């Protein structure tokens, strides 16, 4: 694969797939919202239908419900009203933020001339951790890598008495990142903890 | 890469969220701010006066209640149907056809290649790889055109770029076999099985 081929902009179908795969679909929040609205609408339907056919109300007549609502805050413990209000507010905030925030998923794109390739950050972290571990000569438990959109953080706890080369680890991790040409390319930060580990 | 209506999701979630925020804020204000009570009574009375007039106008002679209740019942039925349709459209888009001369009149019949051909071919090739814990292949329809979704769970420590390159070679081979090139998604994730296995065994 030539560098030119890799750098070429993806075709529209692939670009669309990449956009969708790196952003949340909000399916869970949508199903929850649809369910809540449906339950409320079914209740309204029952009461409205009973009213339309001139029958007795099922749980609460609409007039009584409205009277109770218009007389708030009397008729209910203010603490209960506040709690219910806060609950509804938080639920609304959840739906609202879900819709308004960009909803980026913790994934990176690997440019590929044939397919749309997305990789979860955990997978990148695990491959970088392997490289950092090999470079530092420590066990897998002593290396912790976290990958976010713009930053790769490598935490190394060296074996007590055996120093590790911070710059060499950073170079190895950067090399691995460049081989994986993820987009966007994050910065690398290596932290070697001051305390060593014994008994490994 | 499924047919989830994402723009619709955002529009409806913003609407529902804003309504719930307003109701919640009103209830909170009534519970916490003493001055909100009299204000709300005035607002409620104004609404009630307007609704009362409306219901008076729409009550037919000899009827006890307004026909607006029938309208309301019909509207709620439409709302329920809409909500069920909305929820049912999440994650939709699986397709059975992968390639073929769809919808064209041809002499001597038509050729259709089922999605399971591509799924089985790729799955068989991926099953031989030892650096993958699990692989699933499924055909989806993207804007009317079929495409493949390849979900891979690499073992911990495996370099994703190597997998991406080799799997895209498999996809090219599939292109050559099937004779058409469809959009393909290769998605790599850490599944539950790769997360909980002991590190030293695989690294």
Report what the structure shows:
In chain A, β3 (143-147) and β4 (151-156) form a beta hairpin. Chain A contains 7 helices and 5 strands; from the N terminus they run αααααββαββαβ. The model of chain A is unreliable at 1-6 (pLDDT under 50). Chain A has helices spanning 3-7, 12-21, 27-52, 62-70, 78-100, 121-136, 166-179; strands at residues 107-110, 116-120, 143-147, 151-156, 187-192. In chain A, the strands form 2 sheets. Chain A has a 3-stranded mixed β-sheet, covered by helices on one side. By secondary structure, chain A is α+β, with helices and mostly antiparallel strands. Chain A is elongated, with a radius of gyration of 28 Å. With 203 residues, chain B is of the alpha+beta class. Chain B folds into 2 domains: 6-88, no CATH class; 97-202, Cation efflux protein, cytoplasmic domain (Alpha-Beta Plaits, 2-Layer Sandwich), CATH 3.30.70.1350. Chain B is built from 7 helices and 5 strands, in the order αααββαββαβαα. In chain B, the strands form 2 sheets. A 3-stranded mixed β-sheet of chain B has the order 3-4-5, covered by helices on one side. In chain B, β3 (132-142) and β4 form a beta hairpin. In chain B, α4 (115-127) packs across α5 (160-178). The radius of gyration of chain B is 29 Å and the shape is elongated. The relative contact order of chain B is 0.10. Chains A and B meet through α2, α3, α4, α5 and β2 of A and α1, α2, α3, β4 and α5 of B. β2 (116-120) of chain A pairs parallel with β5 (184-188) of chain B, so a sheet runs across the interface.
Question: Which keywords apply here?
Answer:
heterodimer, A: 200 residues, Alpha-Beta Plaits, 3-stranded mixed β-sheet, two-stranded antiparallel ribbon, disordered N terminus, B: 203 residues, alpha+beta, 2 domains, 7 helices, 55% helix
